[in-house]
Specification:
Elements lengths: L2 H28 L3 H27 L10 H16 L4 H24 L8 H31 L2
Helix pairs in contact: 1-2, 1-3, 1-4, 2-5, 3-4, 4-5
Length: 155
């Protein structure tokens, strides 16, 4: 198990969760819809839980956990702010933009799990990441189903 590669993997996942936390903070502030605010808060809690677990693993290696976000996450949040403002805080648009962010999170976890993580991570770490993936995927599916419901309601 290569320590630096493990830390890099854990920090990449930390960045994605930091992105989700910041994205949903923005989403909460951008909507007056109480149902969406509650859902965004729950989704943010998922990433806060994942973040704590990932930070613990990085610290266990004696390293400092990643505190920032990805450039792509910052761009996603900026685009979301602009689109939300232009669309008059339209529920369907907000959900579409959130789903795009969720796609990035799901894809990042899938790449880690598909790229032979056993070479770099312990079995406990792989199990933790797999459990986090299931939580993130469930959140993604919730956002997608709400987006689909909005699209179908407009027909």
């Amino acid at each position: 198990m290569e320590k630096q590669k493990a830390i890099s993997i854990l920090n990449d996942l930390l960045e994605i969760n930091n992105d989700r936390i910041e994205g949903y903070k923005n989403a909460i502030s951008e909507t007056d819809d109480q149902e969406l605010k509650g859902m965004f808060s729950r989704l943010m809690e998922t990433s806060e839980k994942c973040k704590r677990e990932l930070e613990s693993e990085v610290i266990r290696y004696g390293e400092k956990p990643e505190e920032g976000t990805r450039t792509t996450g910052k761009m996603f949040r900026a685009w979301m702010d602009i689109r939300t403002a232009l669309s008059g805080k339209d529920r369907e648009t907000v959900l579409k933009l959130c789903e795009q962010g969720e796609d990035v999170a799901v894809n990042t976890y899938e790449k880690v799990l598909d790229n032979k993580p056993a070479e770099h991570l312990s079995l406990d770490q792989i199990n933790m990441i797999d459990n986090q993936y299931k939580l993130i995927k469930s959140d993604h599916d919730l956002v997608r189903s709400l987006r689909d419901a909005e699209v179908n309601a407009d027909r």
